[in-house]
Amino acid sequence: xxxxxxxxxxxxxxxxxxxxxxxxxxxxxxxxxxxxxxxxxxxxxxxxxxxxxxxxxxxxxxxxxxxxxxxxxxxxxxxxxxxxxxxxxxxxxxxxxxxxxxxxxxxxxxxxxxxxxxxxxxxxxxxxxxxxxxxxxxxxxxxxxxxxxxxxxxxxxxxxxxxxxxxxxxxxxxxxxxxxxxxxxxxxxxxxxxxxxxxxxxxxxxxxxxxxxxxxxxxxxxxxxxxxxxxxxxxxxxxxxxxxxxxxxxxxxxxxxxxxxxxxxxxxxxxxxxxxxxxxxxxxxxxxxxxxxxxxxxxxxxxxxxxxxxxxxxxxxxxxxxxxxxxxxxxxxxxxxxxxx
Length: 341
Hints:
Structural class: mainly alpha
Order of helices and strands: EEHHHHHHEEHHHHHH
Oligomer: single chain
């Protein structure tokens, strides 16, 4: 907390708490802290720790006037580092060197051990997200509302699947060194993660946006596997509902994840996605695809200067088919009602 007012270290002018520079001499209020952050960022970048460097530069941006030259220079650095991080495969540094050397059976065990470590890391990451009081309180409020409507088992499954979806966004933001708030649940609407900066690169924004449905798909498939093993209808219902919610998020409108993914597509890619949605509807007859397709057609007619991102297109198409399948009647045929009552 800053005091109610302070004085400029250079000219002695009294400063309001919200000022970032002195109105009389333009001296930066947080000059010393900015030097520390710059040193930390440079050290992290020299050590190859790009995410840490990006996080430090992001903190520096919050202490600089948006109209200053320093802000513009650091914002450019942030964009450059973010693009470097985005160009690196997510699993590029996961496999140990031993996995690429030695006999096939040793490589196999190395890969299996690595996958186990990665899964444990994801579990730890998900649990760490619950340490935020705002997330925990809003999650319980959300759970209470839906418990009263659907009963606690389905409400719990809904809360967990939405939480995993949101942590998918957080995970990608964290990998890119982009600051963001903790997930916040809003009964009747879902949940959201507030970014602390504006993403200007469409491809990076698409990657962050589509990470949510990707993790949501993983949560739904896990529930469906439990249903196959146990035969308990509640797990099938959770899987189906998770698929439907994440499919809904693919509508390319407003601030939904689908809109962020769609924004990264060139004109021909947008029409390719429309064709893929039409094929998915022809094969699976999911009514939600009519809404997604109608909005996609409307957006495809709009002109765009985006060069296009093939990764975003392939991810979007895969999610359309996989989430449609998860939300559809294969669960109904196993004795699960397609509607929640």
